Amino acid sequence: MTVNPITTGRIQSAIALASRKTGVDFDYLLGQAKLESGLNANAKAGTSSASGLYQFIEQSWLSVVKKHGAEHGMAWAANSIGQSSSGRLSVGDAGTKAAILALRNDPNAASLMAAEYASDNKASLEGTLNRPASGTDLYMAHFMGLGGATKFLKTMQVNPQASGAALFPAAARANHNVFYDSNNQPRTLSAIYDRFADKLGGAAAGASATATPANYAAQALDMNGSTVITGNNESADDALAWATTAMGKFTGKTTQAAASILRPTPDTARLAYMMLARLGG
What we know:
Order of helices and strands: HHHHEEHHHHHHHHEEHHH
Helix content: 55-70%
Shape: globular
Distance between the termini: 28 Å
Oligomer: single chain
Strand content: under 5%
Number of helices: 15
C-alpha cells in the first residue's frame, strides 16, 4: 500500500512529538514504525490482533495504555481497563474497548504509547544488562517481549553463536525467516541480532530522508485538498522556495544563530504559521 506523503509527514510529526515528550530516540521510533507498518497508521496484521502504526496486539496495547494513558490525556481509557488475578487485561464495556483499541490507529496516541513502552523496556534492559540499551535492543523487546529479549540478550553476551531456534523454538516456528536463513539453516543469536540492527537502521534512514523542515513546509501547502494562503500573491512553489531558504539559514549554525528562529519577527511568524498548518493547528 502506498502512503500519501502528506499523511507520512503528519505521522513523522506525531513521532517527533512523542520523542520530545518521552526522550526516546526519534530515529528509533521512526525506524520501528517503518518496519512494523510501513508508516501506515491503519495497518492490520492478518494473523493476529496487531494493528496500527506500531502493530500493538490487544493485550500489549491495553497494558501500556493502562500504565501511561493518563499521562497523555487518555485517563478515560486507562481508568476503563481492569486486570484479573491472572494478569489478563479487559474492558467491561464493548464500545469503550473498541474505542481504546481504535487509538492504535491514531498516530499521536500510537507514537506516545510506543515511546513509553520503549522507555519502560530501556530502563529494565539497562538494569539487567548493566549497559546502555541500543535501538536494536529495544526492537528485540518489542518483537519478543521484554522477557524474551532479556533472555536473548543475556545469552548472546556469553554465547553469541548459540542457535536462536534452539533457544526459542516457539518463536522460531512462528517466524521462520527470522530464525533460519535461506538455506534453512538456523541463525545464531548474533546473526539474528545483526539482521535486526541492519533492518532497523535501514528503515530509519529511508524514512527520515523526507523528514526535513522544507518538506514540512511543502506539506503545509496541501491540507487534504484545501489551499493554505501563502501571502504576497506568490505560488505554493515560491512559498516553498522561501521556506527552504529561510530554514536553510539555520542548518549547521551555532545554537545562538539557530535560536533566532524563535524570535517573533514577520518571517518567523510566517514559518510558524506554515508549520502549524502542517500539523493541523
